Amino acid sequence: MLLVLLLLLLLLLLLLLLLLLLLLLLLLLPLLLLVLLLVLLPLLLIILIIIVIIVIIITILSYIHMGECS
Questions:
Q1: Distance (Å, rounded) from C-alpha 56 to C-alpha 63?
Q2: Could you say which DSSP state residue 11 is in?
Q3: Membrane-spanning residues where (predicted)?
Q4: What's the rounded Cα separation, in Å, for the pair 52 and 44?
Q5: CA angle, 51 then 53 then 55, to 5°
Q6: Segment 48-54 long-range contacts (CB within 8 Å, at least 24 positions apart)
Q7: What is the maximum span of the chain, computed from C-alpha positions, in angstroms?
Q8: What's the whole-number average pLDDT of the chain?
Q9: Which of 9, 29, 39, 70 is least surrounded by CB atoms within 10 angstroms?
Q10: DSSP string spanning 15-70?
Q11: DSSP 8-state secondary structure symbol assigned to residue 2
């Protein structure tokens, strides 16, 4: 009988731990998302800037090429 009570107590403790972990995850999730955004936003900006520069270079080169052709 004592063993069953101990097992039930252990199960309850495990459930409480799981609930605490879930709460922690829910609390930390926005923080993690914020960190991800802070890390990814500069990367996205850099990629956008690189793409814009490449497009500008291609247009300039095509204009020069058109000027040479005509």
A1: 11
A2: H
A3: 36-64
A4: 12
A5: 70
A6: none
A7: 98
A8: 92
A9: 70
A10: HHHHHHHHHHHHHHHHHHHHHHHHHHHHHHHHHHHHHHHHHHHHHHHHHHHHHHH-
A11: H
Using one digit for the tens of pLDDT, what is the confidence trace for 39-59? 999 999 999 999 999 999 999
Report the sign of the C-alpha dihedral through residues 32, 34, 38, 43, in that order.
positive
Pair of tokens at residue 28 = 């930390």
> What tokens appear for 51 in the block?
């793409």
Structure tokens at 1: 């009988």
| Three-state SS at 10 | helix
Looking at this protein, which amino acid is placed at residue 57? I
